[in-house]
Amino acid sequence: MRPLRYTINVTLDGCCDHNAGIAPDEEMHRHAVANLNRADALLFGRVIYEMMEVAFRPAWTGAMPDWMESFRNTIDSAKKYVVSSTLNQVDWNAELLRGDLREAVQQLKQQPGKGLLVGGVKLPLALAELDLIDEYEFIVHPKLAGYGPTLFAGLSKSIDLKLVDRVEFRSGAVAMRYEPRR
């Protein structure tokens, strides 16, 4: 069975707005590529799918440092599943997931492979409520944002986690990976 892994950048005060963290650097992008390479497919909600498509689809013509190309190429070629009730179609190696979220994700997890990777805020909250996330990674940035969305706001029950890995970056950010205590 493929594990479902969640990864997100967050400030010390819990803000998970992608504009609130420290500027991405080569070291953090290498870490992100390693996470992508641990998965056979990505699971996105509509917001993250559209944000990533705009930023990393090859048709985008903005300036990008050479060290970001590996991330762009990896995410571009990855299989993507998009959970959305508002989109009628997707492309960019993507497929819409419809129907019961628990059933659809459990079917994806039962397929053979390395794993599934999810990001964002709303979809991971729903997945956590359904106890479908097998690993949580929080990349904590040494910054106080003072605003923004926070992780797991409205979670109906607490989830006990155990630390399984920790990586410190030169920027001062720390990636902490946890597994649920089940």
Into which percentage range does the β-strand content fall? 25-35%
What is the helix fraction of residues, given as a range? 25-40%
Low-confidence stretches: none
Give the termini separation.
17 Å
Largest sheet: 8 strands, mixed
User: What shape does the CA trace take?
Assistant: globular
Determine Rg (CA atoms, Å): 16 Å
Report the count of strand segments.
Answer: 8
Average of the residue pLDDT scores: 91
Spatial sequence of strands, sheet with the most strands: 4-3-2-5-1-6-8-7
What structural category characterises the helix and strand content?
alpha/beta
- Treating each run of at least 4 consecutive H or I residues as one helix, how many helices? 5
SSE ordering: EHEHHEEHEHEEE
Structure, described:
By secondary structure, the protein is α/β, with parallel strands linked by helices. Helix content is 27%, strand content 26%. The protein contains five helices and eight strands, in the order βαβααββαβαβββ. It has helices spanning 26-37, 46-56, 69-77, 101-110, 122-129; strands at residues 4-11, 41-45, 79-83, 94-97, 116-118, 135-141, 161-168, 174-180. A hairpin with a 5-residue loop joins strand 7 (161-168) and strand 8. Helix 1 runs parallel beside helix 3. The model has no long low-confidence stretch (mean pLDDT 91).
